[in-house]
Amino acid sequence: MAVLILNQRRRAFAPYLTWLEDLDEEVYLYTSPAYGEITEPFALVQVFDNWVSNDRVEIDALRLYEEHPYRLIIALDESDLIRAARLRERLHLPGQQLESAVAYRDKAVMKSLVSPQVSCPAFRRLASPLHLYDFVLEHGLPVVVKPVDGMGSMNTDIIRTREQLNDVWERGLGSGLMVEAYVEGEMYEIDGLMMGQEIRFASVGKYSCKPLEILQQDCFVELLSPGCAVYERLVHEVQQVIEALPSPGVSTFHCEMFHTPEDEWVFCEIASRTAGGRISESISAMYDVDLNREWVRGQCGLPLKLPVPRPSQVAGVYLMPKRPGIVKTIPQKLPFEWVEEYVPRVRAGEQLDAAHSSVDAVMTVIIVGENSASLQARLSQLLRYLEQEVQILPAYKEDTTNEAPVTS
């Protein structure tokens, strides 16, 4: 038989044949042009433009099955999960089915299933502006309005005032949205690998920035030692979340939870895919595990390499969000031996807009340390260095009134 991969990643982040070097089957690759030059010996390759909206991906997959049957469909990106699930159900293939994919993608469905087991903020799907009006009357402000299938905090609004609420109504709500009560507290994230509804590996991290403010503030995600009390408590909470949702089979997961000043854990959301924002790479630096590799191998029934429960070091990832301006200077490398990975995402001379998602960054930096104290000390040293070495100048609008330029 064979395995079909639906891919929209660059080749460097998706070495499928390396991950599956001991798989004695053909591998078919359906991919976006983002993959780049294809030199690996896939049994079949087809490239699709406009990947996310191109319905031929599914139709051609059905036609391919008729001529060259395959036993599995692998898809790593969140926007491909429902597409892959539809094909599995149509072809009666194992793996995450549509009910599970929808539950892990549609946040309103997700919270309706999770809320009987785990504390959730009040929420409602928005079918009209009257629903938002009624929700605010009942729960007050602030509230959060976001897409039910959103990713990376994109198109998410925190509405704190009546004026902001009026602005939302004036521009029109649109479709596919939900509203939920704003939760005060700190944000934690939990990543791992599950088989069925059992967590086989988990990593816990804490965001330095406030919830939903990652687009405006520098953020550091510190991975916590498995020996700390918060780690055990959060893994228990997420296990309850996973048990409340339809099983995705073998899958990675990325979950976010609020910790309130009243010491209550409140569920935010969960996805049946690997974390972005270089969080998964920081997990690799701490635990020596590639979650995407293990996810792909697990689906194929191949042996897994799961990490030891007590790592010898801790790690974290720093993200500097984009802000409007022109990049004057940015270092090409960092002079610290404890920097595990540095990825500058902009160049000198580039004009930037504001960040549109939580992974829309000027740079990401993964650092390691012996413990939390050394990690925080190194983060402080890094920030002092970047304050001197990174310059983003305000962008100016063209002067059309013979007045001095104004900052945009």
Automatic annotation (TrEMBL):
Residues 110-300 form the ATP-grasp domain. Keywords: ATP-binding, Ligase, Nucleotide-binding. This is ATP-grasp domain-containing protein.
